[in-house]
Amino acid sequence: MTTLRVPDFVHDSSLPPLPCASHRIDPDLFFPHWSDSTTKQLAEAICGPCPVRDACRAHGRDQRERGIWGGETETQRRRAVNVPRKGTSKRRVRT
Ligand code: SF4
């Protein structure tokens, strides 16, 4: 079971409503299949004008979250911080 660590900005009442929190947005958009580029682009577009985009992206990187955070996919995040996929070792041993 995965526990979602909610970033602090989610509870900041001084912020305008976050785009992803709209009841019209399907949360699954932020967890697309790796090959579903259409859904990824839609989620990235939703994140585009978000006022906490940088903080959200930082949370995704710091917590090595799955899905799209701050408009950044898991692949983009791994490349940006050069970390391996969650659940894999840092080194692979060739046999
Ligand atoms: S940047 Fe983060 S908080 Fe903002 S819409 Fe995207 S997922 Fe939601």
UniProtKB/TrEMBL annotation:
<dbReference type="GO" id="GO:0047134">
    <property type="term" value="F:protein-disulfide reductase [NAD(P)H] activity"/>
</dbReference>
<dbReference type="Pfam" id="PF02467">
    <property type="entry name" value="Whib"/>
</dbReference>
<keyword id="KW-0004">4Fe-4S</keyword>
<keyword id="KW-0411">Iron-sulfur</keyword>
<dbReference type="GO" id="GO:0046872">
    <property type="term" value="F:metal ion binding"/>
</dbReference>
<feature type="domain" description="4Fe-4S Wbl-type">
    <location>
        <begin position="19"/>
        <end position="79"/>
    </location>
</feature>
<dbReference type="InterPro" id="IPR034768">
    <property type="entry name" value="4FE4S_WBL"/>
</dbReference>
<keyword id="KW-0805">Transcription regulation</keyword>
<feature type="region of interest" description="Disordered">
    <location>
        <begin position="61"/>
        <end position="95"/>
    </location>
</feature>
<keyword id="KW-0238">DNA-binding</keyword>
<keyword id="KW-1015">Disulfide bond</keyword>
<dbReference type="GO" id="GO:0003677">
    <property type="term" value="F:DNA binding"/>
</dbReference>
<keyword id="KW-0479">Metal-binding</keyword>
<protein>
    <recommendedName>
        <fullName>4Fe-4S Wbl-type domain-containing protein</fullName>
    </recommendedName>
</protein>
<dbReference type="GO" id="GO:0045892">
    <property type="term" value="P:negative regulation of DNA-templated transcription"/>
</dbReference>
<keyword id="KW-0804">Transcription</keyword>
<comment type="similarity">
    <text>Belongs to the WhiB family.</text>
</comment>
<dbReference type="InterPro" id="IPR003482">
    <property type="entry name" value="Whib"/>
</dbReference>
<dbReference type="GO" id="GO:0045454">
    <property type="term" value="P:cell redox homeostasis"/>
</dbReference>
<keyword id="KW-0408">Iron</keyword>
<dbReference type="GO" id="GO:0051539">
    <property type="term" value="F:4 iron, 4 sulfur cluster binding"/>
</dbReference>
<dbReference type="GO" id="GO:0005737">
    <property type="term" value="C:cytoplasm"/>
</dbReference>
